[in-house]
Specification:
The chain contains 4 helices and no strands. The chain is an all-alpha fold. The chain has one domain.
């Protein structure tokens, strides 16, 4: 917990330095926006008595993280592709891999929430 607080403080310190210069590259800007998105989307803790709503909240959190990461990822890949000779970096392929990872990850957590909800309903009846 202390380490998370230190990281959050460090991020806020970086963010409070003001807006980036106009000469900032798109990658640097995407990085700043990604860090800001992460700082504004802290995960809620999951305790020993986890329930389906906790898992749904975690899935919602992951969706936001992946959305912010996707913007950053896209900027990095686009910038990298400009510097690869012959255009051999398949951006569409990499984007599809990213989207699959994000969907599979969030889907797995949502499926776990559904299973937990069924178990909760069974115990309540």
């Amino acid at each position: 917990m202390v380490q998370a607080g230190c990281i959050t403080t460090a991020i806020r310190d970086l963010m409070s330095r003001g807006q980036p210069d106009q000469s900032t590259s798109p990658v640097q800007l995407a990085h700043t926006e990604f860090v800001a998105a992460l700082a504004g989307n802290l995960p809620h803790p999951i305790y020993a008595d986890v329930d389906s709503e906790d898992l749904e909240g975690r899935a919602d959190h992951l969706e936001k993280v992946f959305a912010a990461l996707h913007v950053y990822f896209t900027a990095i890949i686009a910038d990298t592709a400009q510097n690869v000779p012959g255009g051999t970096l398949d951006r569409r392929y990499l984007d599809n891999i990213f989207r699959d990872l994000a969907a599979d990850t969030v889907g797995a957590v949502r499926n776990a929430a559904d299973e937990m909800r069924e178990h909760e309903n069974w115990r309540a009846s």
